[in-house]
């Protein structure tokens, strides 16, 4: 691949130029991934019929999960459930030919396992209200989710592929962090093993997308930098449109499952460092502008992180004082 600074490249040109990267990433993924079966991670002996089949319907006393673990499990599951929205965005921005098409299908199939295993676990163990879960699933999937930031009237849509792949580079890593911490919060070794398995998949997915963006940075650095700034500065988790997301996000943050400091320290900054955003010397004027805007945004986020951590420490101090 050769850097094409100052040269015009269409979206189809970019996909064609990135095809060797995609092929090598698919090959790496298939060597590293491990097939697994959702049914192996579900304690089926805990299951019993609901009232429609002569059993007992759910009530809150049956759940062994804390309110924080419930909020995290529901949010994580419904995020995985909205797979059709994510598949549509990826399929529309990638080609369905060659290695691109193989990846779209393989990634979708692997992601689907996550919702299968988490739903089976929650229903069998009666961890959450299955009726409410289904109602929220219907609402969330009906509304869908588009990870691309709103068009400001200046975006070149021929490069929407860059926005999509940049978004999932961060989102897959964020989901990995959330799944791992949710598994610990459940207080159940079965749930912990299950979500470790899911998180391992998410990490491999992140590597694929992150390395595609690395290739794009070498090909069209300015356009890639524009996408990176737009995604980082407007990032939302894919559950942002689901009912009760704000309430659940607060519980998740307070419980240390996923919060602003983790987002910056464990997700945003490691990916930016891997891309060498602040060491690169191949940006043109457009890329330099967006790199400066990104630096300013990160400084603002550092201030917010410090305020968040100070507020949390005050809350913990108050809790310790009450318990003394």
List keywords for this structure.
324 residues; mainly alpha; Ribonucleotide Reductase, subunit A; 11 helices
CATH architecture: Orthogonal Bundle
Could you describe the largest sheet, including whether it forms a barrel? none
Number of helices: 11
Number of strands: 0
The CATH class, by name, is: Mainly Alpha
Shape: globular
Whole-number tally of structural domains:
1
The helix/strand order is HHHHHHHHHHH
Helix content: 55-70%
What integer is the average pLDDT?
90
As for the CATH topology, it is: Ribonucleotide Reductase, subunit A
Strand content: under 5%
How widely separated are the two ends? Answer: 64 Å
What does this structure look like?
- GO terms for molecular function: metal ion binding; stearoyl-[ACP] desaturase activity.
- This is Acyl-ACP desaturase.
- With 324 residues, the protein is mostly helical.
- The chain has one domain (11-44, 58-147, 156-323): Ribonucleotide Reductase, subunit A, CATH 1.10.620.20.
- It is 69% helix and 0% strand.
- It is built from 11 helices and no strands.
- The radius of gyration is 21 Å and the shape is globular.
- The chain starts with 10 loop residues before the first helix and ends with a helix.
- 37% of the residues are buried.
């Amino acid at each position: 691949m050769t850097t094409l600074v100052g040269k015009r490249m269409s979206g189809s040109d970019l996909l064609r130029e990135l095809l060797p990267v995609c092929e090598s990433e698919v090959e790496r993924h298939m060597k590293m991934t491990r097939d697994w079966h959702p049914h192996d991670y579900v304690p089926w002996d805990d299951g019993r019929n609901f009232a429609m089949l002569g059993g007992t319907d759910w009530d809150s006393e049956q759940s062994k999960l804390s309110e924080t673990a419930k909020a995290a499990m529901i949010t994580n599951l419904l995020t995985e459930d909205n797979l059709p929205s994510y598949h549509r965005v990826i399929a529309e921005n990638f080609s369905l030919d060659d290695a691109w098409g193989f990846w779209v299908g393989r990634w979708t199939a692997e992601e689907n396992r996550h919702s299968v295993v988490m739903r089976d676990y929650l229903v069998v163990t009666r961890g959450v209200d299955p009726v409410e879960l289904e109602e929220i699933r219907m609402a969330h999937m009906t509304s869908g989710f588009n990870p691309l930031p709103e068009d400001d009237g200046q975006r070149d849509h021929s490069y929407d592929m860059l926005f999509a792949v940049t978004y999932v580079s961060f989102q897959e890593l964020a989901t990995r962090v959330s799944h791992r911490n949710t598994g610990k919060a459940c207080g159940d070794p079965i749930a912990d093993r299950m979500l470790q398995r899911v998180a391992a998949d998410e990490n491999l997915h992140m590597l694929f997308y992150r390395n595609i963006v690395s290739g794009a940075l070498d090909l069209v650095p300015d356009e890639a930098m524009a996408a990176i700034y737009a995604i980082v500065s407007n990032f939302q988790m894919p559950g942002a449109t689901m009912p009760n997301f704000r309430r659940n996000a607060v519980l998740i943050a307070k419980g240390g499952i996923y919060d602003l400091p983790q987002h910056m320290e464990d997700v945003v900054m490691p990916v930016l460092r891997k891309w060498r955003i602040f060491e690169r010397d191949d940006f043109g004027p457009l890329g330099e502008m967006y790199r400066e805007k990104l630096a300013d945004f990160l400084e603002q986020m550092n201030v917010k992180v410090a305020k968040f951590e100070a507020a949390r420490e005050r809350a913990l101090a108050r809790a310790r004082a009450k318990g003394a």
